Amino acid sequence: MRSSRAYLMIGFSVVAGIVAVVFGARWLAMQASMATQQVVVASRDLDLGTALNPSMLQVVRWPVGSLPPGSIGEIEALDARVVRVSLQRGEPLLEAKLAPVGTKGGLSAVIGDGKRAITVKVNEVVGVAGFALPGNYVDVLVNVRDERDSAISKIVLEHILVLAVAQEASRDDTKPKVVNAVTVEATPEQAEKLDLARSVGTLSLVLRNQMDRSEVTTVGVRKGDLLQLSEARPAPAPAARPVRRAAPPAPSHDKVEVIRGIQKSNVDF
To answer: For residue 208, what are the domain limits?
Structure first.
């Protein structure tokens, strides 16, 4: 009897110990998840190329378990830094979203390494009816006359990033804007080609999917190719009907009746 009670107490102690360990582990995990760290966020909406100052920033507590990589905890560390992308109010400042230390504000802060910015004059139609917005990618189409004085239209540049339209570089706006100039990012070689294309012909922008990075080599379309596709083929001439010729008239014959005794006969001449 006593031994059974002892075993019962031992089993109860083991179960109680396991329950205590489980609840203790949960409590520690909860405490770890509730641990926070200060993170600098934007106190208002910021456009790309903006030089930061303390009035644009604030510090908030952020759970350690979901702390964004590259976050910054001190406002003083961001003084005079320049943002490379547009930020919304409450969005954390990350090192990946900042231009290198010493960069001055403006559009030049967002140009990629080894790239250049070049502005192209456009109109309402050439600018894809206002849908070519900062952050979009376009192809550049040129309409020019070749060495045979024949009109030709051809894509000369592909997957070109639009940096700004007119004087606006914000990438958060999705409303179409009719502008007279578009600034794009290009390599030095692409900038040379674009400058030559706009001096010898008329440029058009072709809006493309942002995720589509495929390149297509075309030979261009000439006026002759266009007309060949649109001209209607002439109808075939109707077949000539066979001409029926009248049968030649039967030759005429002279007949003479000859009577010999009681017999009669006809002789043809």
So the answer is: 111-229
